[in-house]
Structures are given as C-alpha cells and as structure tokens.
C-alpha cells in the first residue's frame, strides 16, 4: 500500500528537482559530491539519483577521482534525453533550430518569408519545424516543446497583439502553432528571447544586468535586471525602437514620427542604400568588405544613430553589458567605432565606465536559442518542480 502523503510526495519532488538541478549545473558529480552540494543525506541522494537514471534524465559515467578509498561513479545530466525547437520568426524569414536539453544546436532550417500575412507565415513555419523534427535523433522524451521569438508585441496568452513590421494584429500565434505541431509552444517577443539566449548561452553568461538590442528590420530590447527579464506590467517592455529621437522626424509604421528605428535599424540602412543600387543587407555587407567608401559611410552613419540610443539606454539602466544582436552583428567592423564614440560622447561618465558594449556572441542565433530555452525550461517545470 502506498502510504506516502501529499506533503512527503511534494518534499520528494522538490528534493529530486534539487538533485537534477545540481547535476545539470555542476555535473559530472559523484553521489557524495551531490550530497555535499545539496545538503541532502547520502541515502536520499542515492534513491533520487537512481530514479533519475531510470527516467533517463541522468546517466552514470566512468569513475571519478578518489579522495582515498573506492573510486566513485560519476553522474551526468543526459542532455540528449529530449530535444527542443527554437524559432525566430522575423519579418522576412523563419529560422528554426533543434537543440538538445543544454541548448546545443543539432540541426537547423531556414526559410524565406515572401509574404507577410499570418496564414502564409504559419504554413511556412509549420513546414520548417516539421522538416527539423524529422531530423531529430531517437530519444526518451522526444520533442519536448517549441519556443518562438516573434518580432512583435506578445501578450501572456501567446497572442501577437501588434507587429508593425509584419503588419499583424491579434494573431493567436501560440494556439495556432500548438494546433499545427501538436507540441507545447511558448511565445515571446524576439528581443526578450534574444536576451535570454545571450544570458544563458552567449555574451551575457557572467553579467546580471544586461540590455540586449535586437537590431534587425526594427529595434527591440530585452532588458535583464539581476538575471531576470524585466517584462513590464503587461509584458510589453523593450519597444525601444519606437522611442523618439527626432521630434519631427521620419514617419514610422507604429504611427509616431522620428522613432529610433527609423534611423538605426537594418531597414533604415537599406533605405539609405537605395541610391547605391544595393537592395539587400548582404549586398551592403559585401560592398563594405570590398572597401566601398559609400557602403562604409552608410554603416558609419547608422552606427552613430545606434550610439545615440545606446547612450540613452546606458544612462537609463546603468547596465553592465549592452549586447547588440540580430542582423546588425554582421556590421560590427564598420559600426563599432562609431557606436563607441557616440556613446562616450553622450552618456554620463559614471554610467559609461561600467557599461561594456559587445556584439552577440551567438551571432544571429541569440533569439532562436533563447526561444529553445523557453521550451527546455517549460519541460523541466512540468516534469519537476522548478526552483
Ligand atoms: Zn515607431
């Protein structure tokens, strides 16, 4: 007869989550090390480790170093117990990656979006993810879920309320994708996803106050304070691309005039490049690589406009780190100096001294990896108790 009460059951579940968490973060560990690290007694650790091995979430590997006596068996997190899908739904593309449970990419698919309507984008998205899932290795838990970072304002029910650059309003993205794929789906704004990607897997691993700037067709920010994403009361924070930097400036699809992204985004840059007869960002990067003075001048100009907004961010948030991500990372060689010069000219000396400006170390993959992280953490939250 099972006499375990609800309380005991909960305590066990919590303890098991603690053991799994320790193995995930600090493995390989022996049972004795796990006991020291978690404060749980050796018998409890042994029982819980046995269950985790049975559930295929941990495995035993080789023998560790002995501190005198028998060499211990080491426990390692089984990162291939399942796989997650991370999706970056941009204005012109859908990029999806398949990762293991530690966020390592095992496969990748990218499709162009030739139109903007939501039905079409959903079809392309579903096809991209299905092609990716078909490449997933066999695993005990299979595909644990998908996360999507989308270039728009998302509410807590996974509805894209407004995406000015995609021209979407009230698209129930989470429900639609969940229905199409039959797996749990988490949705967030792509700048928030990018911030998480850089914090967990990239340039922000060591920092706790980070502003991640997604500079693509538009500009969005993911704001991390004390290792937590600051989402605002409605979850809509970070729309920094729509802050005004010119009172009577260029019109923006959001309805305002003089928004920062009209001067400092990839789209702003491509508008400026039209007289050169260059239509694609790749073409402009290529021209700059070959030393075209016009192309380099345009990057320089956009770098200066980026610097203006970044100086405002540095003064407002006093971050340790500002990470520039998305497509504009590829322009680093030609915009870095302009950004740094303007930021040091326009920000307050105390703030400037502490703030480092870096380019995304995950390159253009910050948002997909952050999106995959949503799926991975949702899996662990559902299976166990998160701490
Ligand atoms: Zn705007």
Automatic annotation (TrEMBL):
<dbReference type="InterPro" id="IPR036390">
    <property type="entry name" value="WH_DNA-bd_sf"/>
</dbReference>
<dbReference type="Pfam" id="PF00480">
    <property type="entry name" value="ROK"/>
</dbReference>
<protein>
    <submittedName>
        <fullName>ROK family protein</fullName>
    </submittedName>
</protein>
<dbReference type="InterPro" id="IPR043129">
    <property type="entry name" value="ATPase_NBD"/>
</dbReference>
<comment type="function">
    <text>Transcriptional repressor of xylose-utilizing enzymes.</text>
</comment>
<dbReference type="InterPro" id="IPR000600">
    <property type="entry name" value="ROK"/>
</dbReference>
<comment type="similarity">
    <text>Belongs to the ROK (NagC/XylR) family.</text>
</comment>
<dbReference type="InterPro" id="IPR049874">
    <property type="entry name" value="ROK_cs"/>
</dbReference>
<keyword id="KW-0119">Carbohydrate metabolism</keyword>
<dbReference type="InterPro" id="IPR036388">
    <property type="entry name" value="WH-like_DNA-bd_sf"/>
</dbReference>
<keyword id="KW-0859">Xylose metabolism</keyword>
<dbReference type="GO" id="GO:0042732">
    <property type="term" value="P:D-xylose metabolic process"/>
</dbReference>
């Amino acid at each position: 007869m099972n006499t375990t009460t609800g309380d005991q059951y909960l305590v066990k579940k919590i303890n098991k989550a603690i053991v799994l968490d320790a193995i995930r973060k600090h493995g390989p560990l022996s049972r004795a090390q796990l006991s020291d690290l978690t404060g749980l007694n050796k018998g409890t650790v042994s029982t819980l480790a046995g269950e985790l091995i049975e559930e295929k979430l941990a495995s035993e590997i080789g023998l560790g170093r002995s501190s005198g006596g028998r060499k211990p068996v080491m426990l390692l997190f089984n990162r291939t117990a399942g796989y997650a899908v991370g999706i970056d739904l941009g204005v012109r593309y859908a990029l999806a990656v398949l990762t293991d449970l530690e966020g390592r990419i095992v496969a990748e698919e990218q499709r162009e979006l030739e139109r903007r309507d939501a039905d079409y984008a959903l079809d392309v998205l579903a096809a991209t993810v299905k092609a990716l899932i078909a490449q997933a290795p066999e695993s005990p838990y299979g595909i644990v879920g998908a996360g999507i970072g989308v270039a728009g304002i998302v509410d807590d029910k996974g509805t894209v309320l407004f995406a000015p650059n995609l021209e979407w309003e009230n698209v129930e993205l989470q429900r639609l994708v969940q229905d199409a794929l039959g797996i749990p789906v988490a949705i967030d704004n792509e700048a928030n996803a990018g911030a998480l990607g850089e914090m967990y897997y990239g340039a922000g691993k060591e920092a706790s106050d980070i502003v991640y700037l997604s500079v693509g067709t538009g500009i969005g920010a993911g704001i991390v304070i004390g290792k937590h994403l600051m989402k605002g009361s409605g979850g809509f924070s970070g729309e920094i691309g729509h802050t005004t930097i010119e009172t009577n400036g260029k019109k923006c699809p959001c309805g305002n005039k003089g928004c920062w992204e009209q001067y400092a985004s990839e789209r702003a840059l491509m508008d400026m490049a039209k007289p050169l007869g260059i239509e694609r960002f790749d073409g402009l990067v290529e021209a700059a690589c070959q030393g075209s003075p016009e192309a380099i001048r345009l990057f320089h100009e956009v770098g200066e406009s980026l610097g203006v907004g970044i100086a405002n961010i540095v003064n407002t948030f006093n971050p340790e780190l500002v990470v520039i991500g998305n497509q504009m990372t590829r322009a680093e060689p030609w915009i870095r100096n302009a950004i740094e010069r303007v930021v040091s000219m326009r920000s307050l000396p105390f703030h400037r001294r502490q703030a480092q400006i870096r380019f995304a170390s995950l390159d253009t993959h910050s948002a997909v990896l952050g999106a995959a992280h949503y799926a991975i953490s949702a899996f662990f939250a559902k299976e166990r108790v998160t701490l």
